[in-house]
């Protein structure tokens, strides 16, 4: 008897199937088309400090015509808590003295815990977005224990002071990533859906009258393979599709209602990818937002797409 994942994948889009046709929506995109601008990237991590204590770490990279910066927020992760846990925030932007140093450290207190943040953006290399792609590091310690590391040059940062404590192994897991875009209706990005998986190219495009079409069409491709193609988008403005990627079932949801039915305001669309276990037959839309099993980390990737009027 076959396992559930293999059975279910027959009805899902096989992104890794090389026998399928290549990027079929390519004909709808002009070679001269310029993708929308990525304004901010927000990554949410859960750091396990102990078997019973978890902390959420939120990193937001942002960029506009006037400034560029990084915000780091620490908050509690207790689904049973009856009161809101106060958060601690560290801000690093072009208007601050700290950012102009490009390299440094900062200590803050959070729930009787001493948090130290170390950063080095001096040699950071950026592409079109606000998030560096190489030549940088962000390190975070809790009471001198290294619990978070980001960037390709982290091994160069104070190796003696930031050596992990073998008696307290803390692990940080990425549980969600949000990207905000503004501009036209062409969005291009790159992400991983699991920690050990490959990075995948994602292109979202809404073609319409400017492309010589009578009705708008939405297409989403991963690694140059179309995974959804929605015709008459103004009537099919919400929906979902399951794809099979890196051995995982990934639910893809789109909501472009505001693009057509919210006149007088910027058109905001939402595209969400969420992984789920092959043994879980439920759509992610039916699941509770609070994850009861802290050892199981599902990943959500959300694109907020603003179409300028």
Automatic annotation (TrEMBL):
Pfam families assigned to the protein according to its UniProt record, in alphabetical order: DUF868
InterPro entries: DUF868_pln (IPR008586)
PANTHER family named in the record: EXPRESSED PROTEIN, OS04G0407500 PROTEIN
Protein name: Uncharacterized protein
Source organism per UniProt: Erythranthe guttata
